[in-house]
Amino acid sequence: MTENSNAVTYAGAGVDVEAGDRAVELMKDAIKATHGTGVVGGVGGFAGLFNLTALKEYKKPYLATSTDGVGTKVAIAQKLDIHHTIGQDLVGMVVDDIVVTGAKPLFMTDYIATGKVVPERIADIVRGVAEGCSLAGTALVGGETAEHPGLLAEDEYDVAGAATGIVEADELLGPERVHEGDVLIAMASSGIHSNGYSLVRKVLSVAGWDYERHVEDFDRSIGEELLVPTRIYTADCLDLIEAFPVNGEDGQTGSGIRGFSHVTGGGLAANLARVLPQGTVGLVDRSTWEIPAIFKLIGDLGSVPQADLERTLNLGVGMIAVVDPSVADAAVERLNKRGLPSWILGTVEADNGEHKNNSDYVQGAKGVDGGAAVLLNQYK
Q1: Which residues pair with 157 in a beta bridge?
Q2: For residue 87, how many C-alpha atoms fall within 13 Å in the half-sphere facing its CB?
Q3: Read out DSSP for 23-39?
Q4: 4, 100, 192, 247 — which has fewest CB within 10 A?
Q5: Which stretch of 1-10, 14-23, 197-206, 249-258 has the lowest confidence by average pLDDT?
Q6: Which pLDDT does position 8 carry in this prediction?
Q7: Domain boundary assignment for the chain
Q8: Pairing mode, if any, of strands 342-350 and 372-376?
Q9: Is 303 exposed, middle or buried (0-12, 13-18, 19+ CB in 10 A)?
Q10: Does pLDDT of 1 surpass 60?
């Protein structure tokens, strides 16, 4: 075959295979650090493998799976050229949806699409994923980096991930376990996490703030504050389940954990309502916590109505546990001893219609025709 100076090559089309290989070399050690005895093989296979032999002790195992991304938070990471935190956001968004069912996340995969593979940038992202997986006790068994020139700009990328977990069938958490009189426990968020960034970015744009703007209250730029990674609750939730078992000795729902609600898109009330049974309402007491400074700043800077903030952002509560009242105080104490600020947030009561005319009342959220939730009183 004769050489042609006008020949079109893959590299000429904008795809650098060698850069992809260099990125893999840079991230291999971080990925391997997440591997326990269940992972089969190393990095670079066509598929990740996980040995399920150790799971034979399960009588009737259910697999739980979840997939998600980080949303427009990546735009801030790209603008500031800070990429090592966004991976933890990805892990948190995925594994903490799985633990809501009572399942332990076993393994995860990730996907990065970018306009141009910059090995160091890709490695930073994946190191963040690996760090998040380590925090969750989850193996990172594989992933994919795809170069999409012409579709994405050279400095643009998006990330997505999926994870699989396992739970014993008779320990599966769900609305059917929740009773009237159960107690709601709030677990503090680390910040805005990974939801509502379209609102946040719009507020800053309208106000004329760039991400490098220094904010005295945070002692860093507003962009750096916005990039604080999502808190991962998996290990804390699994510890609560172990300490306060889901089932009693008779195999029925015991005096322990009833359920969890991961506060993501839609805000606190909408996500809480999803895990409550029909005929009940979660009464959330705003006076039990003070809204963290970053949320106040966004609200004040954009004159954002409180109702909009509550429907969009977590406002300081990233996960909620629903527990039997007999263990509520002990559960709060345990979480705080683990370094996770937590407090009694409210209770679950019969929905007798008293709160249905309250504008903060939410029912039928996220397509789930379950219970309801309402936020009462004023914030500290």
Answers
A1: 114
A2: 29
A3: HHHHHHHHHHTT--TTE
A4: 4
A5: 1-10
A6: 63
A7: 17-171, 175-376
A8: unpaired
A9: exposed
A10: no
Residue 94's nearest CA partner among 165, 9, 145, 199 is: 165
- Token look-up 């839609």 returns 266
Q: Say if CB 318 and CB 193 are below 8 A apart.
A: yes
- The 3-state DSSP class for residue 111 equals strand
* CATH T-level topology, domain 175-376: Phosphoribosyl-aminoimidazole Synthetase; Chain A, domain 2 (3.90.650)
Among 353, 330, 169, 165, which residue's Cα sits nearest to residue 251?
Answer: 169
DSSP for 130-180, written as a single string = HHHHHHHT-EEEEEEEEE-BTTB-TT-EEEEEEEEEEEEGGG---GGG--T
What fold is seen in the domain 17-171?
60s Ribosomal Protein L30; Chain: A; (3.30.1330)
User: What is the DSSP secondary structure assignment for residue 367, as one 8-state letter?
Assistant: G
218-268 residue pLDDT tens? 999 999 999 999 999 999 999 999 999 988 766 666 779 999 999 999 999
Please give the angle made by the CA atoms of 144, 21 and 81, to the nearest 5 degrees: 70
Question: Given the structure tokens 């990740």, which residue do they identify?
Answer: 48
Q: Is the pTM of this model over 0.85?
A: yes
Residue 3 pLDDT more than 80? no
Between strands 317-323 and 280-285, the pairing is unpaired
Which residues lie across from 257 on neighbouring strands? 323
The pLDDT tens digits of the residues spanning 79-92 come to 999 999 999 999 99
User: What stretch of H or E contains 207?
Assistant: helix 197-207
Q: Scanning the structure block, which residue is given the tokens 């503090």? A: 188
b (16+ CB within 10 A) / e for 35-72: beebbeeebeeeebebeeeeeeeeeeebebebebbbbb
Biggest CA-to-CA distance, the chain: 83
